[in-house]
Design a protein that fits this description.
Layout: E1 3-8, E2 17-23, H1 30-38, H2 42-49, E3 60-64, E4 73-80, H3 87-103, E5 108-112, H4 124-138, E6 159-164, H5 168-193, H6 201-212, E7 218-222, H7 224-230, H8 233-239, E8 247-254, E9 265-275, H9 295-309, E10 315-325, E11 337-338, E12 346-347, H10 355-370, E13 374-379, H11 383-389, E14 394-398, H12 401-414, E15 418-421, H13 425-429, E16 438-439, H14 449-458, E17 467-471, H15 494-505
Helix pairs in contact: 3-4, 4-5, 5-9, 8-10, 9-15, 10-14, 12-15
This protein binds ligand BES and zinc ion (2 copies).
């Protein structure tokens, strides 16, 4: 299904579906009164005879009109409590509206923005824009490998949703900005959903070049020879067991007016295109979904796309560390002692703890080369984070309270939820090794595994660097559909980081 959204003062298209939004009190708006009259009192009749439809947030009721009606159906859409509705709720409602539209095979629908209401917590234009965003995010589909799409009930032809009313122009302006986020999210989801036989470091890097260069992002790819020469020893060790050689991709968006790329806001993504666990092979039940292990990198490149599309007025750096963690005669082993770009040596405790190794070199590289304003890394780093927070919150470690404050604002503005996790010298200390500068797993074993991983990364953060680590293992891949994201890949990270950049731009 492709969904397109259009905006106009008065409906310009022949539509088959009218959407009528109703708050919990079932009080009809002026627009709803008109539709009610058009349909011979159908809305009021159903509100009276359908006691289960109560205008609750996201509730929908599809009504089929009579043969004399100018349209085929009316969809009643609950908005819930007018004092509670906000931009997040509007997106969730939009996601549910999309399902009602799709399930009723609507091809063209109209949503009329009413006048702002004093009792409502949200401006009508914002409501319409975020509702549209919810629809768009829920309409995502990954069906490129289906050879017979027409057999698939959920894939109907194109659908147009028209937002009409006096405030359509204002709604369009808000939506346009949101849509650049949707495009970044879709790119990230596409990459995560893509299987590892087609998406490996080299092809991932090629996709980034193809997608971002035309938008004005400078993209540089380091191949295995360059990485070897530069001293990315930890990154190279992780990738050495695979026929697909590692890559590092550096993306620059120079949006700041001064034109010299300086103190960029920097984002680093873990891009393990498949994580078998290596010699410490993952068991059945844990290995099947491991094409997702590049979701951090996907979020970073999705973010770069969004930033370029909206022409952000800031210098933004994206770095993704790409490698495949395979088991082979050339694979690195538990007990190996490897070097790193920072010069520190690492005793490999377990080859399945590979993400922290590739990230370590990228963190060093960014600090040594770019004097970043701050660095945020994103990684599907630990199963322990999923044990701690499940699928709802992204566990976030941060060494600077001002950055955390801005991340909280960004979280509010984007609907992507964060929970602050502790950094502590004890977690760093437990990585001490007898025979190298550190080992890759802490002495607490499986306890506080996500915190220990953050403690490991912190050993690569230099004095004065403002840094945050987001462990997205639980939130980048979901087993059940979400209101605004069909399973599995969510594209988590694009929206919150785009909002974070906006906080610093402002
Ligand atoms: N990629 C995994 C973490 C992961 C697990 C992400 C499940 C998404 C879903 C990571 O590389 C890993 O294997 N971590 C190990 C660490 C262990 C060896 C200490 C884990 O979490 O089991
Ligand atoms: Zn692993
Ligand atoms: Zn991994």
């Amino acid at each position: 299904m492709t969904l397109s959204i259009s905006f106009s003062e008065s409906p310009s298209l022949q539509f088959d579906t009218v959407i009528v939004d109703i708050y919990e009190d079932n009080r009809l708006s002026a627009h709803a009164e008109t539709i009610d009259r058009d349909t011979g009192g159908m809305i009021k009749h159903h509100l009276e005879t359908h006691p289960k439809f109560k205008g609750k947030a996201g509730q929908t009721l599809v009504l089929t009109t009579g043969k004399d009606s100018p349209y085929l159906r009316v969809i009643l859409l609950g908005l819930g409590d007018p004092e509670k509705i906000d931009h997040k709720e509007s997106e969730i409602i939009g996601g549910k509206l999309f399902l009602a539209l799709r399930n009723s095979a609507a091809e063209s629908a109209v949503f009329t923005i009413h006048k702002d209401e004093a009792r409502s917590n949200i401006k009508s234009a914002d409501l319409a824009a975020h509702l549209s965003m919810g629809c768009v995010l829920r309409s995502y589909k990954f069906d490129k490998y289906k050879t017979n799409i027409s057999d698939d009930a959920s894939s109907s032809p194109e659908m147009v949703l028209e937002i009409s009313g006096e405030a359509a122009e204002a709604a369009e302006a808000v939506f346009e900005n949101l849509y650049s986020e949707a495009e970044g999210v879709f790119y990230a989801r596409n990459l995560v959903n893509e299987p590892a036989n087609t998406l490996y470091p080299e092809s991932f890097a090629q996709s980034i070049k193809d997608e971002l260069r035309p938008l004005g992002v400078e993209v540089e790819v380091f191949d295995e020879k360059k990485l070897q020469k530069m001293g990315f020893e930890a990154h190279m060790a992780v990738g050495q067991g695979s026929a697909h050689q590692p890559r590092l991709v550096v993306m620059k968006w120079a949006g700041d007016k001064d034109g010299n790329f300086k103190n960029p806001m920097s984002f680093v993504g873990k891009g393990i295109t498949f994580d078998t666990g290596g010699v410490n092979l993952k068991p059945n039940g844990s290995i099947e979904e491991m094409k997702l292990d590049m979701a951090g990198a996907a979020a970073v490149v999705g973010l770069m796309k969004t930033v370029a599309l909206r022409k952000a007025g800031a210098d933004v750096l994206g770095v993704v560390a790409l490698a495949e963690n395979m088991n082979s005669s050339n694979a690195y082993r538990p007990g190996d002692i490897i070097g790193s770009l920072s010069g520190q040596t690492i005793e490999v405790s377990n080859t399945d703890a590979e993400g922290r190794l590739v990230l370590a070199d990228s963190l060093t590289y960014v600090q040594k080369t770019y004097n970043p304003a701050f660095i945020v890394d994103l990684a599907t780093l630990t199963g322990a984070m999923m044990i701690a927070l499940g699928f709802e919150y992204c566990g976030t470690f941060v060494n600077d309270n001002e950055l955390w404050d801005k991340m909280e604002v960004a979280s509010h503005n984007s609907s992507e939820k964060l929970w602050r996790m502790p950094l502590d010298p004890a977690y760093k200390k437990e990585m001490d090794s007898q025979i190298a500068d550190m080992k890759s797993l802490g002495s607490s074993g499986r306890y506080a595994g996500a915190c220990a991983a953050a403690g490991f990364l912190e050993r690569f953060i230099e004095e004065g660097t403002i840094w945050s680590h987001m462990d997205i293992a639980g939130v980048s891949w979901v087993k059940a559909d979400r209101p605004t994201a069909p399973k599995p890949a969510t594209g988590f990270g694009v929206r919150i980081l785009n909002q974070l950049i906006k906080e610093y731009e402002a």
